[in-house]
Write a structure and sequence with these properties.
Layout lengths: L3 H6 L8 E8 L2 E4 L7 E3 L3 E7 L5 E7 L5 H17 L5 E6 L5 H4 L6 E4 L17 E6 L5 E5 L11 E5 L3 E6 L5 H18 L5 E6 L5 H7 L22 E6 L6 E6 L14 E6 L4 E6 L5 H5 L1 H11 L7 E6 L5 H4 L9 H4 L27 H6 L9 E8 L2 E4 L7 E3 L4 E9 L2 E10 L7 H17 L5 E6 L5 H5 L6 E4 L16 E7 L5 E5 L13 E5 L4 E5 L5 H13 L5 E4 L5 H6 L20 E6 L6 E4 L14 E5 L4 E5 L5 H5 L1 H10 L10 E5 L5 H4 L14 H9 L2
Parallel strand pairs: 3-7, 5-6, 7-9, 11-12, 16-17, 20-24, 22-23, 24-26, 28-29, 33-34
Antiparallel strand pairs: 1-2, 1-4, 4-5, 6-17, 8-9, 8-10, 10-11, 13-14, 13-15, 15-16, 18-19, 18-21, 21-22, 23-34, 25-26, 25-27, 27-28, 30-31, 30-32, 32-33
Helix pairs in contact: 4-18
């Protein structure tokens, strides 16, 4: 039950979009003034509520490292009561100092501050400009500033510090600090000036060794400053993600293992039950609440999670995320194979979407507005209209052999191909190299290895300015398919385009023809010709020793029919058209008999929200730090490799200041990222591009992309920020 006094505290909770913060004070909740959002006392605990315009809700507890036992116990109770006040709709998160979720950090784009003290020490917020404190900044994408002792002993050469003296805010940059981190420290200093000082403070930037007298008078003569230390890596345990059913049907909470290896199947989740997804290897536990589950089980979700953590002897700082059915976030969905949201099949349902983890509205494709609508270009993976120059090479005996232009658009499973595409943007020529191969099939390992070398060689011949895209059969980007104009991209199951084919085609062959949202069409030979391969939404071509038939599903389009006729002509003849439900006996006999196949209408397409990661393997292990909130071009760290994950494609963006190991190993970094992903997407296209050579299909995911930004180096950008 919710105490009466909390109805007053929660009176405005969720009434308008935005963030609300309360601090736990003497077993009660007190609102935090908005100008102090993003500041957290290490001796306190907090409750945060984020409301979208939909509305939908995120509720967080935040526990400081020095928070009292009473406050640590009270905060989860307050979160449950706030969840109950909002009718069980929020997603609930438990947060701990120095280990906050990406969702939590997204509310504080400039970063958060950890301040010494708390309610128990009687410390009050200082609202005057009489301030003396030192903040130590850590993090690149998510900045955390910890208040430390005001002495030279707190400094090191590898980090940035903020010396906050109220009317003057000094950003001190160590001699070995990273320029990108310097830029982030300016953002936090501006946040302090604007929010805490109402704009009445002056920001100064000082490099190690150039301290002004006011700083030296405060700290004394500068001694030898120690070098920086590398960021501490979170401990990772080799615990595979596991899915459990939780139930109190027998009178006590019990868990039953459902599956122990991702990707999990979405239909394993029943709305009549509650589940725990155990990702303790990354110190996270998810609780999923079915909408028709026992009300007592739904309300006891946090209790069940904490009992689970205790029974498993996990760290008490294991983070918990609790979500009702329909409110699943991107991190949870990534543990499932091809997660489909309700409104992708039935239209919009009750909205639970949260900020940038929400589905992105699909923009219909219109080639005439391609260069004016970059968001559309990005969603549909289109670089241009495909009218540039195309050259195709087959990998053979460690070298490239030109493919006969009359066969452009036909790929054979026994070959590896390099597709070179050149196009102009104004007075500048741009290049893309598509490397195409069939995963686990006829293309030899030697040819696959050679294709990687030949791609680099081709890039070198273009002054290393080409964008490289690795493509596996069946995952061709829309732009690659569009290069063949009014002809479909045809993929033959085996064989080769060489003069002497390595394998003979089967006597019975079935080609699946489908048109994409960009109106480009692919025709793929099915590995096992069977009635179960048919789909009511598409068109198929069936070739047997005695017949050639064109099967038209109820959802087949005129363009797909035209592409099917082209394929039939390629196979040597004119096909007999067969409408779905009117198939002759010979049709079914050729496919091994009549069987069930896909007869439901195509799911409505939606766009899953993109995610941006700052990636590095400098330590010998892949570290991927997600950029919180709505990312922008400014979040691209020019000294690193960034991974943009748009779900059906991965972009590896290489900053010009990245080290040589990262530049040459960027595709490996992207593959390591994919290998660590639990959703089973290992074969999706991976595009490598260098800073300044970005494609429309990449830049369109960034709001207001500025092509001139790279004209300034990061030091110039630092100076520009200081002038704001």
């Amino acid at each position: 039950l919710i105490p009466k006094k909390l109805f007053v505290t929660f009176a405005t909770a969720g009434k308008s979009p935005g963030l609300q913060v309360w601090r736990v004070e003497k077993m009660d909740l007190k609102p935090v003034p908005r100008e102090f959002y993003g500041e957290f006392y290490t001796g306190d605990s907090y409750i945060l509520l984020y409301t979208t315009s939909t509305p939908s809700y995120n509720v967080h507890t935040w526990i400081g490292e020095k928070s009292s036992l009473d406050e640590k116990a009270a905060a989860p109770i307050f979160m449950i009561q706030l969840d109950d006040f909002l009718n069980g709709k929020p997603v609930q998160y438990t947060e701990f100092q120095n280990d906050e979720s990406v969702t939590f950090m997204s509310y504080f784009k400039a970063g958060i501050q950890y301040k010494q003290g708390g309610v128990s020490t009687g410390l009050k917020h200082a609202q005057s400009v009489e301030v003396k404190r030192l903040l130590h900044l850590k993090g690149r994408s998510s900045v955390r500033a910890t208040e430390v002792d005001m002495s030279w002993g707190s400094f090191n050469q590898g980090d940035c510090f903020i010396i906050d003296l109220g009317e003057n805010i000094f950003i001190w940059a160590g001699s070995k600090s990273n320029p990108f981190e310097r830029l982030k420290s300016i953002d936090l200093a501006i946040e302090i000036r604007n929010n805490e000082r109402a704009g009445k403070a002056v920001i100064h930037h000082i490099d190690e060794g150039s301290e002004p007298d006011v700083v030296l008078d405060l700290l004394g003569p500068m001694p030898n400053i120690p070098p920086g230390t590398s960021d501490k890596l979170p401990d990772k345990k080799n615990i595979p993600p596991t899915l459990y059913l939780i139930s109190d049907a027998a009178g006590s909470m019990k868990t039953t293992k459902m599956a122990d290896k991702p990707p999990f199947q979405q239909d394993a989740l029943s709305n009549s039950d509650c589940y725990i997804l155990d990702n303790a290897g990354d110190r996270k536990i998810f609780v999923w609440k079915g909408k028709d589950a026992n009300p007592d089980e739904r309300k006891a979700a946090l209790t069940a999670a904490n009992k689970f953590i205790k029974d498993k002897n996990y760290s008490p700082k294991t983070k918990v995320q609790i979500m009702p059915s329909g409110a699943e976030n991107a991190l949870f969905k990534h543990f499932f194979f091809n997660w489909i949201d309700k409104y992708e099949t039935t239209g919009p349902s009750e909205a639970y979407t949260m900020g940038r983890i929400a589905q992105v509205p699909r923009i219909p494709f219109d080639s005439s507005t391609l260069h004016n609508n970059t968001a559309m270009a990005a969603q549909h993976g289109m670089v241009d209209d495909g009218s540039g120059d195309v050259k195709i090479y087959r990998v053979e005996d460690g070298d490239t052999v030109p493919v006969d232009p009359s066969t452009y658009g036909q790929f054979f499973g026994g070959d590896c191909y390099l597709v070179q595409y050149s196009y102009s943007t104004g007075a500048r020529m741009r290049h893309i190299i598509y490397t195409w191969w069939v995963q686990g099939q006829k293309c030899s390992r030697d040819e696959l290895t050679a294709s990687a070398f030949l791609t680099v060689r081709m890039d070198d011949s273009m002054d290393k300015a080409a964008v490289q895209v690795r493509v596996t059969q069946g995952q061709e980007p829309a732009h690659l398919v569009s290069l063949f104009k009014n002809k479909p991209l045809v993929i033959h199951l085996g064989g080769t385009s060489r003069a002497s084919g390595e394998s003979k085609p089967a006597s019975t062959r079935l080609y699946h023809i489908r048109q994409s949202c960009t109106k480009a069409t692919r025709a793929v030979e099915v590995s096992v010709p069977s009635a179960s391969s048919l789909n009511t939404n598409d068109v198929f071509v069936l070739k047997t020793p005695k017949a050639l038939m064109l099967w038209v599903g109820k959802g087949g389009t005129p363009e797909e029919k035209e592409a099917a006729k082209y394929v039939a002509g390629m196979l040597g003849g004119t096909a007999t058209e067969v409408q779905e439900t009117k198939e002759p006996v010979g049709f079914w006999n050729a496919l091994g008999g009549k069987k069930d196949y896909q007869t439901s209408k195509t799911l409505q397409e939606s766009v899953k929200a993109p995610r941006l990661f700052n990636c590095s393997n400098k330590t010998g292990r892949l570290i991927a730090e997600e950029v919180p909130g709505e990312f922008t071009q400014l979040d691209l760290a020019t000294d690193d490799v960034m991974i943009l994950d748009t779900y059906d494609q991965i972009f590896a963006w290489v900053g010009k200041d990245a080290n040589e190991t990262e530049k040459t190993g960027s595709l490996k970094i992207a593959q390591e990222y994919l290998d660590s992903d639990p959703s089973g997407r290992s074969s999706i296209p991976v595009t490598k591009m260098k800073q300044g050579e970005e494609l429309l299909s990449f830049t369109g995911w960034f709001h207001a992309w500025d092509p001139k930004m790279w004209d300034k180096d990061i030091l110039q950008r630092i100076n520009d920020r200081l002038k704001e």
